[in-house]
Amino acid sequence: MDKIGIRYEDKYEMERRVPLVPRHVKELVDKGIEFEVEKSGKRVFKDEEYIRAGAKLVDKIKTADVVLGVKEMPVDFFEERKTYIFFSHTIKGQPYNMPMLRRMMGKKVNLIDYERIVDEQGRRLIFFGRFAGLAGMINSLWSLGMRWKEKGYITPFLEIKQTHHYHSLDEAKVAVMKVAEDLKSEKLPQDLSPIVIGITGYGHVSKGAQEILDLLPVKEIPPAGLPRLFDNGNKSDSLIYKVVFEEKHIAKPKQEGKPFVLQEYYDHPELYESQFEQYIPNLTVLMNCMYWDDRYPRIVTKDYLEELFAGNPRLTVIGDVTCDPDGSIECTHKGTEIEDPVFVYDPFTRKPAMGFKGDGLLVMAVDILPSELPREASQAFSDALVGFMPEIAKTDFNISFDKLLLPFPVKKAMILHNGELTPDYQYLKEYIK
Questions:
Q1: Count of CB atoms situated within 10 Å of the CB of 382
Q2: Range(s) of the chain covered by CATH 3.40.50.720
Q3: CA distance 319 to 302
């Protein structure tokens, strides 16, 4: 049976998550699996907890054949014919990770990507999505309060802190509920009302964001109901209006009169164009929580923001949880770090300025949002991963791909087998060039 390594996360200073928590390491050790765990002073679970679980603490993984991580690994980290399991961020052909993928191919390694561990219906089985949504909404409400403060408005949202300052999710929720109580007794300034928060998507990320938002005095309305909110001018009440946008609200067929067909949109997005701009003027906050790649129309373009900000826009914050640089939110030029989480984008100069000051739109685009809730996020992730580990540990990866005795979801997630692209990922050849 192979030995498993857990590496030190070094892509971000505040990346504190782990793929397997000590409790699950102990379960696997009791089944005969050995562990090497790289030392880490920042990991949310301490080195001593892994030692008590039966793991060997090391400066560098040397003998483990299967290496687990969370985020991308350095190009020079990979060793010949080992198996690496992490979020590789390569399946869209992301240019910044193609050198890493080429190096892995040269080293003839096996690459399994958590993002592609799915069931037979294509539903992800191992994910941090809910925690990205939870932290993303907390951060965006905090950002809203801070941005309004810059404009001279003091609101109850100032009581909310950035997520990582809370010791637990429960503590963060208590803070949000305190804001809910204050909103019931304290009228917001007339020109800020009504607060409208739009959320794209309805998956795990969106549900996490809504879990936080629903702690506030919220009324959900359909996208079609947005214009009616403003029929009689601004309202001054304590309600926050929540609007959830599905694909059919975001895009429409290019052919006039043709109905929206979801499967066709997935299969042939080139036949569709964005229709989301009609909703943006009514939003105070836009939470972007849905999958996107460059085959699909953008949700918010730089050209549109320049047009919008020529007037007196309501849109104050975009919480870009999806966080694709230059992607569905075109002005998200990069994923931000926990220590420096927001920037103000000027639609006229088309330049960002880190922090809360400046003219334009505030964007919160932290790339590792779940790491702001590292303990709970790691526990949930480990709960989903641990059941696959015994079979992964005993697999002989040297046999041909078609004979590998891996669980279906894990085999589906194997991008490289002994350095070669597996059948489902042959399309990446075009990006590797």
A1: 21
A2: 4-127+374-432, 129-372
A3: 16
pTM for the structure as a whole: 0.91
In the beta sheet, which residues pair with residue 361?
Answer: 345
Question: Is the domain defined by 129-372 classed in CATH 2.60.260.20?
Answer: no
Number of residues in the chain: 433
Distance of CA 334 to the CA centre of its chain: 13
Residue 189, token pair as written in the block: 């300034």
- Contact predicate 406/40, CB 8 Å: no
CA distances from 420 to 73, 110, 335, 394, 402 (A): 19, 8, 30, 21, 13
Q: Give mean pLDDT in consecutive 10-residue pieces for the chain, a chain of 433 residues.
A: 90 94 98 97 96 97 96 96 96 94 97 95 91 98 98 96 97 97 87 94 96 97 91 68 97 95 95 96 97 93 97 96 94 95 98 97 96 96 97 95 95 97 96 89
Burial of 93 (0-12, 13-18, 19+ CB in 10 A): middle
Query: Would you identify the CATH topology of the domain 4-127+374-432?
Result: Rossmann fold (3.40.50)
User: Would you call 199 helix, strand, or coil by DSSP?
Assistant: strand
With 0-12 / 13-18 / 19 or more C-beta atoms within 10 angstroms meaning exposed / middle / buried, residue 335 is middle
Measured CA to CA, the distance from residue 3 to residue 393 in angstroms comes to: 7
Q: Structure tokens of 361? A: 């739109």
Instruction: Give, as one character, the DSSP assignment of residue 55.
Output: P
> What is the side-by-side order of every strand in the sheet holding 83-86?
56-58, 35-38, 4-6, 66-68, 83-86, 110-113, 414-417, 420-421
188: amino acid identity, one letter: L
CA angle centred on 88, ends 63 and 374, rounded to 5°: 85
